[in-house]
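Q: Here's a chain of 156 amino acids. Please give me its 3D structure as tokens.
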Amino acid sequence: MKTKALIITLLLGFITMNGMAQDASAQRKKEYNLEDNVAIMGYDPVTYFFSNKAVKGKKELSYTYQGITYRFSNAGNLEEFKKNPTKYEPQYGGWCAYAMGAKGEKVTIDPETFKIIDGKLYLFYNSFFNNTMKSWNKDEPVLKSKADVNWKKIYH
């Protein structure tokens, strides 16, 4: 009898944990900047760090981490991402860092306008003569601090 109770308890725990993981993935998909269910408009998140360039990923080299799909330009980058996904994911769900800091808003980005700060990827809006990275650079410490707080309000 004790064995049956233990098995039932373990199964219920597994089902609960699985449901929580699915809820977390659904929440991430809801809050992250996705285009056709793909992050960073299909750009390879690892390339930013190793070549300081924005490079489009390939559909056949896709990987989904906690509900968010990323694309990679080569198999090596895909494997590198799998080792430590949180290292390569963009900050603020891939939304414009400046807009997150200035107004707490989710604003789309230009994946070719980016900055690596303290080993983290920050993306920016850049269109119609408005490169928000230039504004970010003028007051980065204050904007970064505000963006961190605003993202926690949105995502958590």
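Q: Can you summarize the key feature?
A: Strands lie at 34-35, 38-39, 58-65, 68-72, 110-117, 120-124, 126-127, 130-131.
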